[in-house]
Automatic annotation (TrEMBL):
Species annotation: Maribacter aurantiacus
Residue ranges annotated for the DUF6852 domain, each copy included: 51-120
DUF5606 domain segment(s): 3-48
A Pfam family the protein falls into: DUF5606
InterPro entries: BVU_3817-like_C_sf, BVU_3817_N_sf, DUF5606, DUF6852
Name this protein carries in UniProt: Uncharacterized protein
Length: 143
């Protein structure tokens, strides 16, 4: 499952896995406790595949940031906690992404990224490779 099915719901902690769409919104399952919730269309929801992090030269997709963390941590959880102090979090993030825009990426954003990464690793959803399988299937059908 790619990041296209993982959601962040405003006002709710953690991440959610999209289960199904309904007439009035959709049903999602929490990665924290496994509880299912129904989310209305008016809720502020972000799909992880659509989130990007500001750097000094461009916006880097969250998938690429997760790949850099995964590379540094050898696929394990992060060496820092999202509850660590601000300076420690910023130092860690600077190791991962040395050119991130310090004026536009806040400590709260770094905390979320670290927490989300660890949640995805815990739930065996840490496959951050791009969705190339769809492209490969299309090419095979053409041949």
């Amino acid at each position: 499952m790619g990041l296209e099915k993982i959601l962040s719901v405003a006002g709710k902690p953690g991440l959610y896995k999209l289960i199904t769409q309904t007439r009035t919104g959709f049903v999602a399952e929490s990665l924290l406790d496994g509880k299912k919730i129904s989310v209305g269309l008016r809720s502020n929801v972000s799909v992880l595949s659509e989130i990007a992090i500001y750097t000094l030269d461009e916006e880097l997709p969250l998938r690429d940031v997760f790949l850099k963390i995964q590379e540094k941590e050898n696929g394990e959880k992060t060496s820092v906690s999202h509850k660590d102090e601000k300076i420690k979090l910023e130092e860690y993030f600077f190791e991962i992404l040395p050119n991130y825009d310090e004026d536009r990426v806040y400590t709260s954003d770094i905390k979320k990224i670290i927490q989300w990464y660890n949640l995805l690793v815990e739930n065996d959803l840490a496959d951050f490779s791009k969705e190339e399988t769809k492209d490969t299937e299309k090419k095979e059908k053409k041949e």
